[in-house]
Amino acid sequence: MASEKTGPQVFPVIMAGGSGTRFWPLSRAARPKQFLPLATSRPLIVETLARLKGLAPPKNCSVVCGAVHAPIVRKTLPALPKQNVLVEPQARNTAPAIALATLHVARKNPRGIVVVIPSDQHVADVPAFQAAVTEAIAVAEQGRIVTLGVHPSRPETGYGYIQVGAPISGTACEVKRFAEKPDRATAEQYLVSGEYLWNAGLFVFRADVMLEAFATFMPELSKALDAIRPALGTKKEAAVVRREFPKMPATSIDYGVAEKASNMAVVPCRCGWSDVGSFNALPEVRPLDDAGNVTSGPTFVIDSSGCVVIADAKPVAVVGMKDVVVVDAGDAMLVLPKDKSQDVRKVVEALKAKKLTGYL
Amino acid sequence: MASEKTGPQVFPVIMAGGSGTRFWPLSRAARPKQFLPLATSRPLIVETLARLKGLAPPKNCSVVCGAVHAPIVRKTLPALPKQNVLVEPQARNTAPAIALATLHVARKNPRGIVVVIPSDQHVADVPAFQAAVTEAIAVAEQGRIVTLGVHPSRPETGYGYIQVGAPISGTACEVKRFAEKPDRATAEQYLVSGEYLWNAGLFVFRADVMLEAFATFMPELSKALDAIRPALGTKKEAAVVRREFPKMPATSIDYGVAEKASNMAVVPCRCGWSDVGSFNALPEVRPLDDAGNVTSGPTFVIDSSGCVVIADAKPVAVVGMKDVVVVDAGDAMLVLPKDKSQDVRKVVEALKAKKLTGYL
How far is B303 from chain A (nearest CA, A)? Predict the structure, then answer.
């Protein structure tokens, strides 16, 4: 068991740089998905921090986000020390964000264990999740970069996959390879093979191990880290980060490190995970009524099944509909078929074209 | 040609006693259908009064409505003299309302021509409508009770029908019979026969002729009128009407008089008439976009066809939908299939059951 006193020091890093539009009109540029109570009555990012309880104290947790979201992060997570909100001067994919957070951890404890966790996912079975992270921490202590692999439940074409290799210890295994988002046929093959897990963006590693990996596989990024390191904790920190961060390549940690490193490991995880990718995913993570509808707020859902109906303050009535999404965000509303949830981007594009930025 | 100077005096009576729920959430108890701008940018009742321009001056027009709606009638129709708003003490179907209005007309001119016109219909071709009314007025002058019959455009099962009899003069004919709302097969038979017209609730008659008909066919009602007559124009009028009106049988003019009288006539009318009976009827009366959608307000209708999308102040986005009704009334919203528009009553029932009277 990893615990703060007897085991290694654990430093969760919550990745909150996302700015998706897939939950418009609920999500907006100023209030992206991770700040919405999509799976429970609390915002996803609040559940994410709560999910780490027992693994690490809040003072060890940090959040990486864009400057525009730092105030809402601080407001939404009051237990988090203010200095633990790390601001990316610009969105440059996951490698630079993880690098910056890892640098901060290394300053506190070079052998500290970093747990990278996206802020906008849902986990139904928290004990199973914590057990997997605990096992990953133990493997990471040995110098491995560990990724959590989610047992796939469908031939999903929207995620990357991890092919599992030889056993290491416990349930942890070598990584045979990281596979890009597959086509449908390949995804079905992955599913029946039993050899593939979903890459959920969850990474566990020692700070010093990852900094070494950056030095090996991402020298440009590493050079920027070297420039930032002496400024950490000084008055110059913000200015130096602003100057150096844009020099880092805008690359994912998967492509920049995980697909290249030889010390990767994977811990399989069956924990009711969902990336809550669109309105279509809400029935996975929320309670359903007898007709399979997800409802929230003052709704009247009559003769309808398989719908997602989200009301704000005022009543929303849905009669005789099947598999549709109806959302009232208070200042804008949306209706579309549930299985075309991704087409919400067409509305966002139309709003942009009409320069209705107040609704973006 | 009937004109105010050279022809008979014409007294339009606009029937505004309706309190339907078929346009919820736009329509409410305090603001029923006739006060909504459903067909044009103006409320149906405003269009109804405008449709009479040239047939009669506003001072000859009256509106019959419930007490609760008298203020909104006065506000919506400022050109109408205030005393021309006749209040029904209670809703008792069309015969008592027409009787009360006819009594008022008879006091001004016993041979005055009453034109009864529902307040909540739409007419696309106003000149054709006026030509038919003008012809009906001429026939009514001869002592007939004339109904306007609308050429049917589909085998509608929601209306009563008029079977046309022998020609009288011009296009006016005897009425062979009034037929109740038919079943589908009968409606189809009516349509192909060419002998049947829709009963649209439009009646034209001399005041004295109708009062005589009431005396013959509705003696109880006639007795109440006799009690009201001496009080008209006096301080006691309101009290006497309140006392006598409930004594009148709550019967339709069709059942009470039209189906029984032998001096009925019908003038066929092809005037782009619609009763605007539900959201499903809006595509009949409103302009359509290229994909056959009706839209109003700030809407974003994308990859969708055959929809009715009504926004209030805030944007309503509809993506990938077919033949649905989406209505935002500002304080409540509704989504349902267009061809199940009548099921809106189920929402109204649910609101009643939950005692959410503020939304009724």
Answer: 9
